[in-house]
Amino acid sequence: MPDADSGEKEMAGRKNDFLVRFWGVRGSLPTPGPETCKYGGNTSCVEIRAGNEIVIVDLGSGARPLGISLARETPLHATVLISHYHWDHICGIPFCGIFYDPRNSFDFYGEGRKDKGLRSILAGQMRYPYFPVGLEILQSSMRFHTLTAGDEIKTKSTVIKTAALNHPQSCVAYRVEYNGRAAVYCSDNEHQEEMPDALAALIEGADLLIYDAAYTDDEYSGRSGAGSKIGWGHSTWDEAIRTAKLLNVKRIFIFHHDPLHTDPVIDRLLRQCRPEFKQLHAAREGLTVKII
Q1: Most CB atoms closer than 10 Å: which of 52, 71, 167, 180?
Q2: 157-195 pLDDT, tens digit each
Q3: Residue 137: partners with Cβ closer than 8 Å, 6 or more residues away
């Protein structure tokens, strides 16, 4: 199935539709500008619709346009999944308008860190001197659930499975299952010689895999660019293809684009890599994908 940006009307979906929309696809930091207009410069934020349910994965700077769009559906409830707490994945929280509306409610899920739970961690970026107001200014109903990788979350219509990723300070992958189909969010993961069994099981047979492939193999190894990226916690385009083939993934969307990967660079990589896997796509802001 070709990519299709089907707009906000379709994003609301029909009763049993399973949809994914990308609001932020960039890694590390926002990169606005004329060279990133096609794929977008906002950082990680993905909306999943499972019938009438809304699942949001990560709240990078893409959370701001997400909030503008979802405000049209207030009052609403959503499940929010946080992969980890590096700023490019949470910096949009204070700027996401739906969190300020008392008619809305949210269930947040994410790992703890040492003696800190999820709420305490998210509140940290809105404390003095980093932000002028605290998390308590957000008037929506927020319930915070601290999880451990491997836990399973059940909502009214979905089962959400989790697995640990290889990333500095820890990170979680999520598999959202709905009506016999599955979408997997696997961002901020550095591939290893052998993929851990739990992660392989999470990805196996996914109808749609969102995969962190910030680098080319040459960039990762240091053969090109400004030195080796080994140990930085991210993967490559070639590894994305190997993963998709090995684990019987139907479609894969390259995600967490490196700040130096302009639109022409991503276009070139798609041309080079797609012959190796026909259902390889590059995630871009505003793109809506229907999982069938």
Answers
A1: 167
A2: 999 999 999 999 999 999 999 999 999 999 999 999 899
A3: 100
What's the CA angle centered on 174, arms 242 and 90, to 5 degrees?
A: 110
- Domain membership of residue 78 (yes or no) is yes
Asked whether residue 1 is domain-assigned, the answer is: no
Alpha carbon distance 252, 237 (integer Å): 11
Q: Which domain holds residue 48?
A: 7-290
Nearest to 21 by CA among 41, 3, 2: 3
Specify the pLDDT at position 224. Answer: 84
pLDDT tens-digit series, residues 198-235: 999 999 999 999 999 999 999 988 888 788 989 888 99
- Note whether residue 82 is domain-resident: yes
Bond from prior residue into 65 cis (ω within 30 degrees of 0): no
Amino acid found at 248: N
> What CATH number is given to the structural domain containing 69?
3.60.15.10
pTM over 0.85: yes
Q: What is the dihedral of CA 220, 235, 94, 22, to 10 degrees?
A: 120
Cα 258 to Cα 5, 106, 148: the distances in Å are 23, 30, 28
Phi, then psi, of 199 in degrees rounded to 5: -70, -40
Considering the domain boundaries, does residue 2 fall inside one? Answer: no
> Domain count of the chain?
1
Q: Where are the alpha helices (DSSP H) in 48-106?
A: 63-70
Handedness of CA 235, 241, 247, 248 (dihedral sign): positive
Give percent of the chain with pLDDT exceeding 70: 95
Say yes or no to pLDDT of 79 above 90. Answer: yes
